[in-house]
Amino acid sequence: MIAYLCAIGIIALIYCLLTLGLNLQFGLTRLVNFGVVAFFAVGAYTSGLLSLQGVPLPLCFVAAGVLSGLLALPIGLLSLRLRDDYLAIVTLGFSEAVRISIQQEGWLTHGVQGLPGLPKLFAAWGAASDMAIFTTLLVLVAVVSWGTVRLARSPFGRLLKAIGDDEAALAALGKDPAWFKVQVFMLGAALAGVAGAFYAHFITFITPEQFIPLITFYVWMGLVMGGTGTVRGAVFGSLLLMVFLEGSRFAKDWVPGVSEVGMASLRLAAVGLALILVTLYRPNGLFGGKAK
User: Fold this and answer.
1) How far apart (Å, rounded) are the C-alpha atoms in residues 220 and 227?
2) Cα gap 25→188, rounded to integer Å
């Protein structure tokens, strides 16, 4: 039971990293990124491929974050010309392009066969490796949360909020928001890449089917339910979503006559209903304060 809870905790903290990265992009700057899973996949495959070549894991994690951030550069530049719905469509298409590329370019990624046998993080710790991963992720999420709060209160953070509130007014005051938008988009993507590296070296086996748009949907769900623009909303929203998703796995024990496939559909329907209710009655999120 402890091992199961530890594994769920690790996945929940990985989602926290993804949600914190999205909170930087959308919560502060209102950059609509529907391609979160693309940078998550790039980080996982970058770290996995390098580790299979004997590269030390700390360098693999750094490479995962750097490459994901660099890959976000052209999308960030596109954000200078595209807004709202158009940027959302581009990022969604980008995520599918990345997934299909991973699936088709077997010479590099082994295609649908995936990458088995990835070295596990803290493997030398034996049975305590999962607890070590959990502790490392917990510290990392705490550091990123603290850094996000400091960033939001800094002049740079206030500028990012101004971009999200009214970019035209900011430009009229003589500020050029272009490079700031690119920076924050790359920073959020780098966090997703690091999260992908943790995922790869915890699961130790990755395939393209693990990086579907549903992951992006879950990350957005956590952020919207928790409260956009706040660290506590990003963290507690993603944790609450994970508790709901995992807890609903046991619902079939007290819902008679529902198959496994049917229960999966009911779970998604329940998640959608929860999103509607939060949007109606708590538009700022469960942890984002009451709407004025």
Assistant:
1) 10
2) 6
Say if residue 115's pLDDT is above 60: yes
How far, CA to CA in Å, does 163 sit from each of 28, 126, 171? 8, 48, 9
Q: Is 204 helix (H, G, I), strand (E, B) or coil?
A: coil
105-138 burial by CB neighbour count: b if 16+ within 10 A, else e?
A: eeeebbeeebbeebbbbbeeeeeebbbebbbebe
Q: What is the mean pLDDT of residues 150-161?
A: 87
Structure pTM?
A: 0.92
- b/e 27-58 (16+ beta carbons within 10 angstroms → b): bbbbbbbbbbbbbbbbbbbbbbbbbeeeeebe
Instruction: Average the pLDDT over 107-112 and give the result.
Output: 90
CA gap 64, 41 in Å, rounded = 10
State the sign of the Cα–Cα–Cα–Cα dihedral 198, 261, 33, 93: positive
